[in-house]
Amino acid sequence: MRMSEIFPRTAFNIPSVLNYETEKLIFKSGLVRSGETLTFYPLGAKVIDKIKDAIINILETENYLKIYQEFPSIFDIKREINSNKVMPLKLYLFDNFSLYFYEITKENEKLKDIVLEILKRTIKEEIKDRLYLVEENNDEIIYAVTSEKTNYTFLHCPKCLKSYSINYVGYKEILNQKNFGKNENIEKVYTPGAKTISDLCSYLKVSPEKTIKTLIYKIYFDNKEEYIAALVKGSRNINEEKLKRVLGAKKIQLADEEEIKNFANTKIGYAGPIGLNMKIVADKDIMNMENAIIGANEEDFHFINVIPAKDFKIDIVCDIKENIEKDPCPNCFNPMEFIQGQKLGSLTYNKEEENVFINGQLDLSVLFYIINEVNKDSEGLIFDREFSPALCYIIPINVKNEKIFQAAEDLYDKLKKYEEVIIDDREESPGVKFKDADLLGIPYKIIIGNKFVKEGKIEVKERKTGRSFEVELRNFNIEFFNSL
């Protein structure tokens, strides 16, 4: 490859929309550019191809078979299984910038370990401190990796080391309440204009922790619609994705003012669960409340001294609140923390009769980004030989010097028989050439200059370590790199 022909050119003017150091370096290098679409240009495409080759090597060592699908789907694969004799069935395919893999087995599933092996092989040793396996409710595991670029947030417990999606429903119980005790302390109080939790707390001089929000939702299922009331402490908000999962709904939306008036006979801000003729879903945190405050289904009035599950019926107790820092872990109940990063991929498990169906996906564009994030410095990218677009970058210091340039051309012709090689044949200054070589992250620079003219020696400089070697050009060959 000749630098004069490589497209697009390296660039050092950064668009203002790029905020992260790695994406700036990737843009400068010209390996990848994004606009209307994400484009991996020739050098970037070589990196992606090498990542694919490494993944294929791992998968095929584990007896995975390559397939093609117009649209990735495990369901079509399942239809073809008419005997357990084909088990375990292990398949993979690449589609756009994603790797998909399927494993159908009776026991001893290995796909989770194989994905970890792929990540260790590509991201190297850095992966152990960056990777989190995030649990979802639908028997799904998300592979998340911490990164300077953050577009995925999840919860992690430092104590038991488990991680959970922010939409993970950690608890659900269906109640069958029949008998209610008598609460003689409940009282209706006048709360003029207190339509919000803030107004209510200000008027009654109480903490939001003492109040209960009642929100009425319209719930859409495949073949029906219904209304429900969702309850959560006044200090918290409802996570609507959690609520949708609890109910198994296709879609949910807040009831409008007219709908609230039909069911609660009041305006927005005064609805409460007492007397509501609908299913009531309560966040589990309200179950231990005493002397709580709720809407009285009457404008300008609330009930105080309420005891949930004693003063009104609850159908489902669950986890439907938006999480905040230090919420208890669903596994060990110790405080959790928020972590931000990028989503690398996922595995989904589905057990049917005796077989386990596992389908997974890895995002190669995110994997490419993380590889470069952990292998860079202030000057540019730093590729290992395995994933670099070229093994070495030949720099003739002065292309107008016939002896130097011819030596560079001869070496280029010699090495390209074995490896991808770049020769910088441009009439640029040595500084520009060195800068581009470092920016592209090519493992070795080969510098041919005055030392060659005088002594027949070239300099080989290793990008990762900065080590430098002087070698006689006449004795130089591809085996030199294999000896390092």
Radius of gyration: 31 Å
The class by helix and strand makeup works out as alpha+beta
Give the number of helices.
12
Oligomer: single chain
Poorly predicted spans:
none
Mean pLDDT: 94
Taking the alpha carbons of the first and last residues, their distance comes to 24 Å
Strand order of the largest sheet: 10-18-15-13-12-14
Number of strands: 27
Which term fits the overall shape?
Answer: elongated
- Strand percentage lies at 25-35%
Q: Helical percent range?
A: 10-25%
* Main pleated-sheet profile: 6 strands, mixed
Topology (SSEs and partners):
Elements: H1 21-29, E1 32-34, E2 38-40, H2 42-61, E3 65-66, H3 74-79, E4 89-95, E5 98-105, H4 111-123, E6 131-135, E7 140-146, E8 152-156, E9 163-165, E10 172-174, E11 187-190, H5 197-204, E12 212-220, E13 225-233, H6 240-247, E14 251-254, H7 257-264, E15 279-283, E16 292-295, E17 301-306, E18 316-318, E19 337-352, E20 355-363, H8 364-373, E21 376-377, E22 380-381, E23 392-396, H9 402-415, E24 421-423, H10 430-440, E25 444-448, H11 450-455, E26 457-462, E27 468-472, H12 479-482
Parallel strand pairs: 3-4, 6-9, 13-15, 15-18, 23-24, 23-25
Antiparallel strand pairs: 1-2, 4-5, 5-20, 6-7, 7-19, 8-9, 8-19, 10-18, 11-17, 12-13, 12-14, 16-17, 19-20, 21-22, 25-26, 26-27
Helix pairs in contact: 2-4
